[in-house]
Amino acid sequence: MSRVIYKNQTLLYLFIISFGIQNICFEDFNFGWSFYEDIIRLVFDISAITVLVSVILLVYQIIKIINKETVVVIEIIYLIINIILYYGVVFTSFYLSTQVRL
User: Fold this and answer.
1) Residue 102 clears pLDDT 80, i.e. is over it
2) What is the pLDDT averaged over residues 53-64?
3) 16: Cβ–Cβ under 8 A, 6 or more apart, which residues?
4) Given 16, 24, 55, 95, which residue has the most CB atoms within 10 angstroms?
5) On the CB side of 8, how many CA atoms lie within 13 Å of its CA?
6) What digits encode the pLDDT tens for the residues 3-29?
């Protein structure tokens, strides 16, 4: 069960980061669309919620791994990858916040 959470968490992080990279690369083209600002707003909202919830989730996962009697290497690898990706999501969220008119 926890591996499913790790995988979904990783996929969500990768989606947010890849959207931010796509937005940087195609910024001039994207803002030609009338609805693109709504898409940015939606992804920004998702990234902001993800940043807030992920802190709690990552701390919980760390505590859970530390308190296990057996070491599950794949969970530790997922956790390390998710912590690294979390910082990418934070930076992407900061970038997207500059692209949204509130």
Assistant:
1) no
2) 93
3) 43, 46, 47, 50, 89, 92, 93
4) 16
5) 8
6) 888 899 999 999 999 999 998 888 777
